[in-house]
Amino acid sequence: MEPVYSIDSLGMYFALLLVDSLPEEWVSLATELKKNRRFFIQFFKPDCIVSEIIPFLAYNVHQAFKHGYNVLRGFEQELLVALYGKRSFQEASCMLGASVSQRAAILVISEDAAVLREALNALKEEFSKMGLSLEPFQEDEKLFTSFWRNLFSKDFNVDALNYSDVLELVKERIALLYV
Fold first, then answer.
1. What is residue 153's predicted lDDT score, i.e. its pLDDT?
2. Pick from 23, 21, 2: which is nearest to 13 by CA?
3. Contacting residues for 102 by C-beta, under 8 A, at least 6 apart
4. Taking all residues of the chain, what is their mean pLDDT, rounded to a whole number?
5. Where are the alpha helices (DSSP H) in the chain?
6. Short-list 40, 23, 5, 21, CA closest to 139
7. Helices (H) and strands (E) in the chain, counts
8. If DSSP codes are grouped into helix, strand and coil, which group holds residue 18?
9. Quick one: angle between helices 75-84 and 54-67, nearest 10?
10. What is the pLDDT of residue 25?
11. d(Cα 111, Cα 168) in Å, to the nearest integer?
């Protein structure tokens, strides 16, 4: 069973999964799974995310919707834009969004732990029908650091940045999106 994490400040729960090859039907699959279930799902490039950033990301996106300063209409899309730290969904999707036939990190968020577990089971079942297995996301601080260093290198010298530095810079980008 994949770990389910709590975001206590929001009363929300999340799980982060990994699939080796994102199927072409991922959009319709996500849409179908969301029928009659209250959860959010987003697909990321695995190198751009770690579970440690999710509570901060979800909190900022939640607050943006609560107070009406969100950039986009959909919570899932806003997660991508917020993590990228710029208002362009197309850019965010290109830089951080998962691609068909590539490894993908799958973030599933819900206000109800039981609904989240049900969604995870349904997701695993649907992927299994396609011959794909979902695994718990494996944190890779080196890949995360490398991914963001490459992105930040356009703006400043990043050679000395370690994982903690990069994590703080990503959080800063998320927060500054809404300033």
1. 86
2. 2
3. 21, 22, 45
4. 95
5. 26-34, 54-67, 75-84, 89-96, 113-129, 141-152, 163-177
6. 5
7. 7, 5
8. strand
9. 120
10. 94
11. 26
Tokens of 133: 């297995």
The total of other beta-carbon atoms located within 10 Å of residue 103's CB is: 14
Minimal CA–CA distance to 155: which of 83, 57, 86, 78?
Answer: 86
Nearest CA to 126 among 112, 106, 109, 145?
A: 106
Coil vs helix vs strand at 78: helix
Output the pTM of the full model: 0.94
How does pLDDT run across 77-94, given as a tens digit for each residue? Answer: 999 999 999 999 999 999
The answer to whether 50 touches 171, Cβ cutoff 8 Å, is no
pLDDT in tens, 27-60: 999 999 999 899 999 999 999 999 999 999 999 9
- Domains parsed from the chain with CATH numbers: 5-177 (3.30.2380.10)
Segments of the chain with pLDDT less than 70:
1
Three-class DSSP category at 12: strand
Which own/partner contact pairs does 130-134 have at CB distance under 8 Å and 24+ positions apart? 130/23, 130/25, 132/19, 132/20, 132/21, 132/23, 133/19, 133/20, 134/2, 134/17, 134/18, 134/19, 134/106
Q: Look up residue 162 and give its DSSP letter.
A: -
